[in-house]
Amino acid sequence: MMQSATQLLLLALVLPLLAVPGILLARNQPNLREAISLLTGAALFIVNLCLFSLGEGGVVLVEILPRLAISLELQPLGLVFGLVASFLWPITTLYAIGYMRGHDEDNQARFYVFFAIAISAVMGLAYSGNLFTLFVFYEIVTFSTYPLVTHAGTEKALKGGRTYLSLLLGTSIVFFIPAMIGTWFFAGNLDFQPGGVFGEEVSPIALSVLLVLFAFGIGKAALMPFHRWLPAAMVAPTPVSALLHAVAVVKAGVFSVVTVVVYIFGIDTVAKLPITPFLVYLAGASILLASLVAMRQDNFKSRLAYSTVSQLGYITLGAFLASEAAVAGSLLHIVMHAFGKITLFFCAGALYVAHHKSQISEFDGMGRVMPITFIAFTLGALSIIGLPPLGGVWSKWFLMMGALDSGYMIMLAVLSISSLLNIVYLLEIPARAFLKPAPEGATLQEARSSSVLAMTITALMCIALFIYGSDIYEFIRSARLT
Amino acid sequence: MLSHLAVLQVVVPLLAAPTCLILERARAAWLFACLACLLSLGISIALFMQVEASGPISYALGGWEAPWGIEYRIDALSSFVLLLINLVAAAVIIGANSSLTAELPEPRHSPFYVLFLLCFAGLQGIVATGDAFNVFVFLEISSLATYALVALGRDRRALFAAYQYLIVGTIGATFYLIGIGFLYSLTGTLNMADMAQLLPGLEEQRLVAAAFAFVVIGIAMKLALFPLHGWLPDAYSQAPSMATAFLAASATKVALYLFIRMYFEVLGQDAVNALFPVGKLFLLLGAIAVILASLAAIRQNNVKRVFALSSVGQIGYLVIGVGLGNALGLQAALLHLFNHGLIKAALFIAVAAVVCRVGGSRLEDFRGLGRAMPWTMGGMVIGALSLIGVPLTAGFVSKWYLVLAAMESGLWPLVALVLIGSFIALFYVWRIVEVAYFQPRDGAAVSEAPLMLLLPLWAMALANLYFGIDTSLTVGGSEQAVNFLMGSRP
Fold first, then answer.
1. Is the predicted pLDDT of residue B83 greater than 50, yes or no?
2. HEC profile for A328-364?
3. Mean pLDDT score, B274-293
4. Set of chain B residues whose Cβ sits within 8 Å of the Cβ of A165
């Protein structure tokens, strides 16, 4: 039993990398190249399903310093994240085929190679057995996505890439590393364990400082004021924005925050720290401010980016509310938001490829030109807003329960106001598309079929998650979190 | 034969140097120098293993017993540093031929090898000997050879840089000699271990302080410790590329070795700090060096100067480690001494490869090289990541220890400073990476660097990765050295 878990964990890490030489060898045969990507993606999802059925196991890969090792470990939080990321990878590949070809992009082989490396790193991050491993894979994610952000190679892309790299690496060097070394200094190890690693004797002040360092150091969680990299990353091709900047990279960030709260500090410890209310309010402010900024964006992808910043605030908020219900709500929101937001990005890309429209003010009447795209968009948007019968309703529900549990009544108001703001800035788009008159001479023209298929799947998943949402919640709650 | 290894370590390159002079043909001289360096590398590995297994080795030169004769002493500290110098020297000499062919006219090749071997022998001598005056002799041998090496640079400005270095270096050596003179007049011995035993019993502590001041300032000049670093950027950017690769990775490291030897073993850290808070001074100077040099590096347009200034900053880290004064800090300094040697060797060999193909090392010369010279730039990126201190590279391990040591001393601002320094390193390194990978190359096509340069480059780059993952050799070696130094005077 343990043996097979070890092999499967390694396989999850290595499988995406195995696709790299294949992609490089077949770089001049697009069909074969994309088939390799797709098959590897499907295989990776199956591996993750097997891991899910195993449920436990772990492996130490290499010990760098005494008690400082690269090790993998199955735990419920990671399984949820790993399943979501590996499910969405082949679907994004499917979408990317339509997008990249429709758009005639250069350097497509390089694109798929770094995509595969990034996914491998995300797998490693999801199944990290200790903080150091998590940190290593976190950095690999940063470096492997940088060439994807600067893919276009234009001055604008380079500038975006610079912001991306300097903010993500900067926060991790200046905050994350000292937080990690400080944890080592006070606790003597970095192993993930329910209830945290710190002993009773460590002063709450020191722990508070460490928690703040983690909150800002994990820059991928895009907690304001370190969120600028995410809008900057929108210069990337849309499939990158869809999978990496709506799912893999940002979720890696919030997943790290949740993991640190649950397995390094322990939920009960965080709840008692004097700094926690400050972080809760900061997350609340991040939710509202980002929503307000999103309303003012006319560029479709920028609006989605700020919407993501706001939604990541939900997850960070759930972590800092520090009750079991809130943490479970956070994790659930990782899943729900992933499916909702990736659908929205797929739609953005489809509009851009098929009609070269990227500004929201140009969308008048487009609903009659691309009905499937806009129906999918509406479903994704409703899920993010949190209305039944879509998955997003569950995570918001449990987050609100968590806020009540922890006694932050004001956060209830924040979450409600944010939902209203979501309605304003997200539903404006299908409203324009369906209610305004169609542009003259427009005929029905969707994006390429593989792209349409991808967004249909994710939109339907938003509905399916409404039905199965409570099962996921039960799974998370059945795990030992404290 | 085996019992003579300690002295052979120095004698092999020292005798190989004049032989190279006789072998006038460049290629023959190169092959012979390679042979000598590889032999020396073998000796250093044997010594390292022997010291690890059975403790310090003492060798009486000419059979004259210490403290009357000259003693060669290889302990955990010196064998660790010798290993680094030899690794770097072997890598540099293997690539030297290809690089020199592109940079210098043929008649200047064999003088290069002669000077290189002399410098190498001198540096090894400083580390191997246990005699304070003998150190001075080897210091001069290596320094004189270095001045001439710098002056070999193809630009006329190299002469000025060499002259500048000559003046500073000579003052430094003189200061060191005066300090040793004081110590000799106080103790009547030149053997360092002997001195260490006699010094604490002396009454004239004021004179000891004066001697220490002279010794430290003398070494600080060779070390290029802020604010005595002015010679370094010019010398490093004007010398032939491979000479820079060797000097950057070894010369300042040996100066730091000498410094650690004097500070911890001969004079005793506590005794010195009782007279004057030197440790705090080092922390201050190191901190200023890290910030100022790193900021200056951002503004440079010549990649050699960027890395040279980065060296000044990294020396700041080393001195901070020493200044912290605890076991972890000293270990961090030793680890970074080793790791930074590997980092700078990789980076400067990569620059040499670029100079070899493109003809210059200005930032605009790097345009589009990511595509034109993928292997060279790949090696360089690994070195750069290690310089920033990304996990799984050697640079991360030493930064980890340094931050931990600063935390143990409770110096939290210093923790911030070390990390901000890394962050600035990200900026000056990434400028180069961005130019190389995302700016198109215009003008004539460039081919990949010759294999003989790629081999040492990748050996160093892979060493950076290896020592970032399997740290048993570096951490174990430095730990032994720390135990030896800290244990020798509780």
1. yes
2. HHHHHHHHHHHHHHHHHHHHHHHHHHHHCCCEHHHCC
3. 88
4. 426, 430
Question: Interface of chain B against chain A, CB under 8 Å?
Answer: 388-392, 397, 399-400, 403-404, 407-408, 415-416, 419-420, 422-423, 426-427, 430, 434, 437-438, 468-471, 475
Rounded to 10 deg, the angle between the A76-103 and A324-355 helix axes is: 10
Q: What is the ipTM of this complex?
A: 0.80
Q: Which residue in the block uniquely carries the two structure tokens 């690794």?
A: B87
d(CA B277, CA B210): 14
Task: Provide the CB-side half-sphere exposure for B226 (13 A, CA).
Answer: 27
Owner of token pair 């950017």:
B237
State the helix-helix crossing angle for A76-103 and A2-25, rounded to 10 degrees: 10
Question: How far, rounded to the nearest angstrom, does the alpha carbon of residue A24 sit from its chain's CA centroid?
Answer: 27
Residues whose CB is less than 8 angstroms from the CB of residue B239 and which lie 6 or more positions away in sequence, other chains included: B149, B150, B152, B153, B158, B161, B247
Which member of B415, B437, B475 has the closest CB to residue A65? B475
Query: Alpha-carbon distance B254 to B273, whole Å?
Result: 23
CA–CA separation, A240 and A228 (whole Å): 17
Q: Which residues of A touch B (CB under 8 A)?
A: 62, 64-65, 132, 135-136, 139, 143, 147, 150, 153, 158, 161-162, 165-166, 169-170, 173-174, 177-178, 181-182, 184-185
Tokens at residue B227, please? 């604010």
Please give the Cα distance from B71 to B412 (Å, whole number).
43
- CB spacing of B419 vs A182 below 8 angstroms: no
Q: How far apart are the first and last CA of chain B?
A: 36
* Cα-based angle B125, B249, B173 (whole degrees, multiple of 5): 45
Helices (H), B367-470: 369-372, 374-388, 394-408, 412-438, 451-469
**pLDDT band at residue A205 under the 50/70/90 scheme:** confident
The DSSP call for residue A251 is: H
Q: What is the largest CA-CA distance in chain A?
A: 74
- Asked if B338 contacts B474 with a C-beta cutoff of 8 angstroms, the reply is yes
Q: What is the mean pLDDT of chain A?
A: 84
pLDDT of B349 higher than 90: yes
Q: Which amino acid is at B51?
A: V
* Under 8 Å between Cβ of B136 and B224: no
Characterise B204 by phi-psi region: left (phi > 0), alpha (psi -120 to 50), beta (else): beta
Cβ–Cβ under 8 Å, residues A100 and A231: no
Inform me whether the pLDDT recorded for B45 exceeds 60.
yes
pLDDT of residue B1: 57
Per-residue model confidence as pLDDT tens digits over B109-167:
888 999 999 999 999 999 999 888 999 999 999 999 999 999 988 888 889 999 999 99
- Here the tokens at position B265 are 């073993």
CB A197 within 8 A of CB A183: yes
Find the mean pLDDT for residues A157-181. 87
pTM of the model: 0.87
The answer, yes or no, to whether residue B490 has pLDDT greater than 50, is: no
Domain boundaries, chain B: 297-490
Supply A65's token pair: 């310093």
Stretch B34-55: mean pLDDT: 90
Cα–Cα distance, A354 to A347 (Å, whole number): 10
The overall average pLDDT reported for chain B is 88
